[in-house]
Write a structure and sequence with these properties.
about 20% strand; 11 helices; globular; 5-stranded mixed sheet
């Protein structure tokens, strides 16, 4: 993730960071264990500030970062501190309005999010190249021999800002707090907010993995023993009917940790060295799976009568079909009726966002 300066000690919810602050350790001495995906090795005694901070990720003068820090990160850090250090689980509307923009932005502003954006653009352009090859009677498979490299930072800047603006799309989701009662840590990756849609896990529809879709779920570890969950309560029930607090053991902890391992771009952080063997085992099993994948298909081809060949394509984001959810996730009966027809939780709100994005695109092109 990209955070600036000392705010990282208030905002980024790594296991060691929050647990260490609970023990009143110095902010500047906070250390964590990191599993480096790039090196395939464990790194001990790592500085949180150095490992989870990247200057000038968005621009050359940190204007975007400073804006996100002031408007998004700082308000969210206060809410997280109340949750983790003061055990304040009374989630008021004001607290939601401070934390949800942070969660929504994290879905769009990490190195893994940037990689996914590049994947989307490559999927689209790959089909363009294939069409050019086809029209010139060349082998379309030649398009697979290379890919486009993008180095612009405007894309991730806009994505971070647009993601934060979409926080209102999460405001209808129910909230649950999951407490880890096992000897394992909750892990946290450099893409810490895991979004999925169990309802549509077998359904290939352009809207199935969107933030507006019916059945959306979000899992966000905020300390080594606490994960915050957001979910569509019309489709799921989390835990008991009369409580938003859920206690889980090692089997469910492993499932939640597998989400973090699958989402990681380069690093996974954790608190205790006793979790090393478990993390390596999880990475060996889940580290190479891609949760979301962009695919482009041809919808139609025709000649416009003036000698122009027109090809219509569709690029969609598809999610991997997971085999299981934690045991505290229960599907309601109504979900069975909605599983084969993609719907949106708030169609009018979604339409308003899509219309604005369309106008923004047309004004830029």
């Amino acid at each position: 993730c990209n955070f600036e300066g000392d705010r990282i000690h208030d905002v980024i919810p790594t296991a060691v960071n929050l647990s260490a602050r609970t023990e009143h350790l110095s902010q500047m001495s906070l250390k964590t264990l990191i599993y480096s995906i790039i090196r395939g090795a464990l790194e001990f005694n790592q500085s949180i500030k150095k490992r989870f901070q990247k200057e000038f990720f968005y621009d050359n003068d940190n204007q975007i970062e400073n804006f996100l820090g002031r408007v998004i990160e700082t308000p969210a850090s206060k809410v997280l501190n109340e949750i983790v250090h003061e055990n304040n689980l009374n989630f008021s509307p004001e607290a939601r309005s401070k934390l949800l923009p942070f969660i929504a932005s994290l879905l769009c502003r990490t190195p893994m999010a940037l990689q996914e954006t590049d994947s989307m653009r490559n999927s689209t352009l790959n089909q363009v190249v294939r069409e050019v090859l086809r029209l010139n009677s060349l082998d379309e498979e030649m398009a697979e021999e290379g890919k486009f490299i993008f180095e612009d930072r405007d894309t991730i800047s806009l994505a971070a800002l647009n993601g934060a603006e979409k926080w209102i799309s999460l405001n209808d989701l129910a909230l649950a707090f999951v407490f880890n009662k096992s000897s394992l840590d909750f892990y946290i990756s450099d893409h810490p907010v895991f979004a999925y849609n169990w309802l549509y896990r077998k359904f290939s529809h352009p809207e199935a993995s969107s933030m507006f879709a019916t059945g959306l779920q979000i899992f966000f570890p905020v300390s080594y023993n606490l994960t915050l969950c957001l979910y569509d309560s019309e489709i799921y029930r989390y835990g008991r009917r009369d409580s938003m607090i859920i206690e889980i053991e090692s089997d469910d902890v492993e499932i939640l940790n597998s989400f973090q391992v699958s989402s990681a771009k380069s690093s996974v952080g954790f608190r205790s060295s006793s979790s090393v063997s478990n993390l390596k085992q999880l990475y060996g099993k889940y580290g190479n799976r891609t949760i979301h994948k962009w695919e482009t298909s041809v919808l139609s081809r025709h000649n416009d009568g003036d000698g122009q060949n027109i090809t219509r394509t569709l690029t969609v984001r598809r999610q991997l079909e997971l085999k299981r959810m934690p045991s505290f996730v229960h599907s309601r009966k109504i979900g069975r009726k909605k599983a084969n027809v993609c719907s949106l939780r708030n169609p009018l709100l979604a339409q308003a966002f899509y219309e604005r994005e369309r106008k923004n695109y047309e004004s830029e092109h």
